[in-house]
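In response to reviewer comment 3 from the previous cycle, which asked for concrete evidence that the modeling workflow produces usable outputs, we include below a single protein chain processed end to end. The sequence was submitted unchanged, and the resulting structure tokens are shown without manual editing.
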Amino acid sequence: SGTLFPDAPSPPPSAVKEAPIPSGTAREVVLVQNEEGELAWPAMVVPQAEVTKAMLSGEACNKARQLVVRFFEDNLYSIIEATDARVLKRGTKPFVDQLRNASFQQSTAVQRALRYLDRGVLPAGFKWDTWREDGIVTTPVKTPVPPEPEPESPTIDWTPDPVEEGKFKADYASYCQLKGIKIKRPPVLSFKDLDLFRLFTLVQREGGSASVYEKHLWKSLYMELGFKTLPSSGIHCITQAYEKYLSG
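The workflow returned the following structure tokens.
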């Protein structure tokens, strides 16, 4: 037992070192940059030797500058730029900086990451099929826990209401004419056709774009559009698409 955030004297800012950029060859716990540019999302790097096609979900990963990570928040995989992450290590930045943020300390994902670092305990179903125990990285001594089945990826059903969809298309055509928007080809998000009605419906369900920004929901909405992984540019792309086609 014991707190994951023990009270300790804060070192002077000049004494706090910057955590390194992850190498990609080891199983490292990292903080990944969020949509606000803060290194605050805890994840684990999948070593290059353990990456599978299923993790990439059709996306290309440049091993020289990109990493595959699995987020502690939702067990989802993502391809990120290596420079958008730092190793999560107590006493170094950005971890020390984030400790000033109460929501960071209260985050379930952060607590899961620290529980692994401190006690070697992983969330249920977090290990991937190619996880190796042969010394790729020094793994903390694990507290015995009963094995649990790998959770199935959630299936998000989407059956649009034909009446609502028809109304949306009519209203959107009028909106485009009013704003002078000319769509020469279907909108695309991460190399796939973007269903504007679905995106609009998801954003409205959450109370509008202002609420989505405030609650940091763009990541989850991106996944609800049918994507299995979140590329490093995913949040930027979905927000840009919404601003371009649906904000006005």
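The CA atoms of residues 179 and 248 lie 8 Å apart. We consider this sufficient to address the reviewer's concern, and the full set will be provided in the supplementary archive.
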